[in-house]
Specification:
The protein is an alpha/beta fold. Helices cover about 40% and strands about 20% of the residues.
Length: about 120
């Protein structure tokens, strides 16, 4: 399963790409839902790391772009928003929610946990 990083902040995109490539993952990075639409291949399985605060964001938009059932697509939401209500709302549509800035070790552990849940042994 490849990892699709949808993040409009260039530095965050580069850090996530660096961390995941360093772990041997195949990573595709884009800065918008429009770029996602252009990069997506039909019937491709993605693990998605998604910036909740993209200007054109909504969960329906992501679903349309990926042409997939969100229940079958592992997603981690990234956001600089740390209020509890916001985090709880994010967990309704994703496997996990991670505040940004994040700590490398926590990011990797959460990513591995969502991936383990999505791809049972």
């Amino acid at each position: 399963m490849d990892i699709l990083v949808i993040e409009d902040e260039r530095l965050t995109r580069k850090v996530v790409d660096f961390l995941l490539n360093g772990q041997g993952y195949n990573v595709v990075t884009v800065s918008s839902l429009e770029e996602t639409r252009l990069s997506n291949h039909p019937d491709h399985s993605w693990f998605v790391i998604f910036d909740k605060n993209l200007p054109e964001n909504n969960e329906l938009g992501l679903t349309k772009v990926l042409n997939t059932d969100p229940a079958n697509t592992p997603v981690i939401l990234l956001s600089c928003e740390s209020r509890l209500a916001y985090r709880l709302e994010g967990l309704k549509v994703a496997g996990d929610y991670l505040g940004n800035p994040f700590v490398k070790e926590e990011f990797m552990e959460r990513m591995h946990e969502v991936l383990r849940e999505a791809v049972p042994a």
